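Recap for those who missed Tuesday's class. We walked through two folding examples back to back. For each one, the amino acid string is listed first and its predicted structure tokens come directly after. Nothing is annotated here on purpose, so try labeling regions yourself before you check the end of the notes.
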Amino acid sequence: MWRNSLQFLLNETRSNVNSKQITKHLRCITTSSLLSMFVQTQDTPNPNSLKFLPGVKVLEQGQTMDFPTGQSAFCSPLGKLLFRIEGVKGVFLGPDFITVTKIDDEIEWKLLKPEIFATIMDFFASGLPVLNDAVPNSDTQINEDDSEVVQMIKELLDTRIRPTVQEDGGDIIFMGYDDGIVKLKMQGSCSSCPSSIVTLKNGVQNMLQFYIPEIVAVEQVMEPHDTISDKEFEKLEMKIKLKDGETK
């Protein structure tokens, strides 16, 4: 693994090894790694989330896994490795991509990307499984007791909505339907995206209502950690407003 070689080079640097030799060795290691795997990146609507495409299968087609916290990634060797990188807040796995969400705007992608690249390349070179005894999302699987409306909702989510959302590095999970209200959960880059509410109301809700008149509204289901994050954000926003008021 080339990261171990990098550590060797750093140790050699401390021993006053010729810097030109180190540069040459580093270039060879990097070139060799890129030849075996070329990881591309793709921007998402969320500036704090970036989509990484390793060029190999991550999960089975149509499957996704969301790890909003380090503790939730206990079942994924890849997820656990990515959470070891300082500044990583969330990891989302799709069929052929990995979405990484950073903590905030203060951490720059140019500092995070090299280590994420190295971690992804090292992991897929290791041959370890992406998941250990974990069951990916199967929320849109049609069940015998599903009503006709629920079946239509699941079909629309699978065929019309999810492909577009996954293209942006996230996913949308069906959580339930009751009295005309569709409950959905945003994952990956969409979970903390400033435009997620707009996406739900102007995009998803309008489409579902167009095909299914019985639907009254679409609501976003928030996890406890999402609620805490929102509260902390509100506190920070209040502090900034107070500070601005004092400086005027």
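Example two. Treat it independently of the first, because the proteins are unrelated.
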Amino acid sequence: MRQPGIRFIVPIADRMTKVSMQTTVVGVPAQGAITRDNVTLTVDAVVYYRVVDPVKVLVNVHEYSSAVLQVAQTSMRSVIGRTDLDTLLSNRERVNSELKTVIDAPTEQPWGLLVERVEVKDVALPDAMKRSMSRQAEAERERRARVISADAEYQASRRLADASKAMSDTPGAFQLRLLQTVVEVAAEKNSTLVMPFPVELLRFFDQLSQRRSALATGNGRGPQPDGAAPAQQPRGQQAR
């Protein structure tokens, strides 16, 4: 191997061969492969390599560019065969790194080539698989939408329960809320609402029913309080 500068070459005994030390880009044609989960697809890639030892490149391998291409094709099939479809689509960096390691192993030491980078360009899926993935993605989005809607309804019900407890402590809050609702409905429809019963009358009936329930409990119709004396039986039943 000659270094840069003026060098003497014997015209008959010596023969000079130029080898490019720059990074070379070779495209790997589309290859049909089967993934680990038995999905048939077509993959193409790009390999970036450069010569690090010109002597090995010229002596140990014939047409090294074609040899790198063949190694890349066979390695790509083997790597895809060990990878499932989800990993190939979502974790492309892992697949590229594994391809670089597999291609670089047989080319660096014996051939004097260094594989700098391997990139998977495109993954072509069958039409049936594309439709299945579309239905799966749609079902996943619908599931998320239902979960979010159910969570929102649950939180709204909790808030309404807390609001009803707070309003039950203040009797006038229900009447104010009713009046506010009436104002909102009347303003929205631009109409007049007629209440069939006054709110005070409804509250009167509610209080009356509570009083009757309290009187019925005090007369012995409800459960007896603790410590109360039992009712006396008639004399005839005591004699018997």
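Answers for example two:
Confidence is low (pLDDT under 50) at residues 225-231, 236-240.
The CA atoms of residues 184 and 190 lie 10 Å apart.
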